[in-house]
Every structure is written in C-alpha cells, then in structure tokens.
Specification:
By secondary structure, the protein is an alpha/beta fold. 42% of the residues lie in helices and 18% in strands. The chain folds into 2 domains: 228 residues, 3-Layer(aba) Sandwich (Aldehyde Dehydrogenase, Chain A, domain 1), CATH 3.40.605; 188 residues, Aldehyde Dehydrogenase, Chain A, domain 2, CATH 3.40.309.10. The longest helix is centred in the first third of the chain and has 26 residues.
Amino acid sequence: MEQQEISRLVEAQRAWFRTGATLDLGRREQALDALRRAIRNREAEINRALEQDLGKCAFESYFSETGMVLSELSYQRKHLRRFAKPRTVPTPLAQFAAKSYRLPSPYGVCLIMSPWNYPLLLTLDPLIDAIAAGNTAILKPSAYAPHTAEVLKSLIADTFDPEYVTVVTGGREENKSLLSERFDYIFFTGSQTVGREVMAKAAANLTPVTLELGGKSPCIVDKTANLPLAARRIVFGKFLNCGQTCVAPDYVLCDEAVKDALVAELKKEILRQYGSRPLKDPTYGRIINEKHFNRLLGLLDPEKTVHGGETDRESCRITPTVLTGVDWSHPSMGQEIFGPILPVLTYRDLEEAVSQIHARPHPLALYYFTEDAAQAREVMARCGFGGGCINDVVIHLATTQMPFGGFGESGMGCYHGKAGFEAFTHFKSIVDKKTWLDLPMRYRPYKKFYGKLIRFFLR
C-alpha cells in the first residue's frame, strides 16, 4: 500500500473519531458483537489459515488462539459499561464544594502491529480492548503469516467500515509508512529489535506505546520439585506452537542434584506427548519459514543433544529437542530461542540461580517449580520479570483477570481484561466545582487568618 493511501486511511479514521461516534457505548457493544459473529462464522477458515502458516491443528488453533480471543471478547462485552463509567475520587476539603472524578476517554486513532507466531490472537486481542475503550484502529499483521493476514483483512473488511477498523497488509515498506504517520497510540507485539524502532518512531510524535516483546524466560527447577509433573508442564509450554511462543520457557535452570532425573522425565514426557516420530505427526506444527528454520539449525548441537534433534527442511520441522552440558557461551544461550530447543543448565544453590537471572536482561516470564513456598515467594519477589507461574508455565497469560505485559527489555505496558481497556484509555482528571459557595482564602489580598486556614488544610 502506498504512503498516500495509508495517510488517507489515518486521516479518515481521525475525522470519524472526532465526530464522537465511538463514544457511544451502544456502538462499541455492537462492534464487539459483530466481531464475535464474524469470528464464529469464519472459524473453519481461520483454522485453515493457521494450518497453512504454522501447521497448527484445529484443536490447538482454538485453545491457543480463537478460543482466547472469544474469551477476551466476552469479558470486555460484559464489563464495558462498568469500565467506561467516570470514577469518582475523594475531593480535598480545601476544594469544597466540588466533585472530583477520572473520566475514561479513548486515545483516538490506534496502530496495532502484531507478530506471526500467534497471528490471530495477538492481532484481535488488542483490537478488542481498543474497541471497548472507544478507539479506531489500523491493524498491521505480520507478512510472515500471509494466510492468516488475508483472513483478518477479509474478516475486518466485512465487519467494519474502514474509518473504524481496517487492515493494512504487506511487509517492511508498509511498516515504515505506517510508523511515519502520527497516531494517538501504538500497540506493538514482536521482537526487541523492531520494538526499539517502533519506540524511536513513536518518540518523534510523542506517541504513547505499549511494547510486548520477549526475551529468554528462565524455568527454575529446585530439588524439592515434583519432577514428573514439572516435566509434563514444561514440555507442554516449551513445545506448544513448536516453541514459537513469547512466554515459553526458554531454558531450564535446575538444581544440579536433580538434573539427571529431570532430563529423564523430560524425555519421557516428550515421548508421551509427541510420540517417537513427531515429524510424521500431521498435528505437529512447523517453523514459520526457512529463515527461522536455518537460524534454529545453527542452535542445534549434536554433541549436546540428549533427545530429539531431527529435522525436515522441506516442511520446516524440528523435533522437540533437549540439550544438556550447556553454559552461557553456547549459541543457544546467546539469543531468545523461539523454537523447539530446550537447553538444561544447572546451579549449585538458589542464590547462584538468582544471580544468573539478575545478570541478564529482564525476561518476559519466569517459572519456578518447587515445593518450598517460602523460596518461591523469595524468587518471585527478588527477580525482575513480566509475569510468571509457580509450578506451571505459560498459563498466566490465559486469564482476563490479570494484566499481561513485559518489564524492562521484555516490554512496557500491559493488557488483557480491565488492564486492556485501560491500556487504550486516557483518564482525564476533572474537578466539578460548585458555584453556590466560593471560599475566599486563595484570592488576593492575602490575609493572615487565611494563611492559618491554608496551613490547616495543606499539611
């Protein structure tokens, strides 16, 4: 899409937003209802697109994408009117007589840029929050998931007028053109590298941003952990979507006393969940493209591989793989893996594990498997990370009741549920001062008695 056409889209949305059309709560509810109908009507089409892009089976497509989108829709639809109400706050006695409140107001024209790994979920979830908050939106899905991008484009075009919500497809040129425009809010999900570019472009217009990035999320397993259950849950979270999940456990950091036992349990669980020939399983997904497939091949190490390591270039598939004997100098530890490769590192005591985490950029998630509740509280309090779980992985993002977001290098801002509504909302602080009383103490000429009153009120 040409720069001029993108500029016209932005200006058309801004003009429509300024009419006040999106302030109507009934219109927002109708928009959410229409989006729900469109998703349900196109579920088979969505499944096909996700299978073509990522090899996802229908079961996985629903529980990790479509179903979660519908859950966010239901939540926002149910609570929208409560979220959108003015929020009364106490008024200081010195400002008597007045009423003070925070008025939720939409930002305006929003740009939502989404990644390829969960192309439906990470496009529509923030859109739902933006609509509920009363904004217009331009969506830019990733060019790496073209089939899902086309479904999204068709779905949105059939559901909304372009001045309300529209989709821009394409690659880097379209991204560049969009980021050269002035938006009222930018919501970006993707890599840290691109996130820095988005933030730099937004800074030129002082545009507020939410950045949902990634990082190397650690999974600590101590010697008290229930190892069979820990392995089962780690294998689920790590190899879901072939490891292409921003909150997947990037590596395991386990007590050296239980390392061999944990690795044995990980092998058992991989065989249980994926069988002995994952590459022959039609429900096993694939790496998004050859570029990322080749990148992951560079992280495989036959000498360190204790399970998996098989590949199929034609289908861009890599079996669930476990590496041991790895340290921080290994290639797999120099970047976020974002694939089905799980390095297992060890520590001698918990203080060493915490120090290793402190020495690296803040991860998006942290997981700790233990039966020691006190140590779990200590680790959760001391380490810096976006969110996480004790004795599980990944599931903290699958709830509308808690904000989801990064911290430091893994992002800024959060969304989901109420936090999602607030992410796309500016709260205006308003004092409604009454006219039937006007206290004179603030006016000149200043008097000694009024000064005493001010000191009484302001202390």
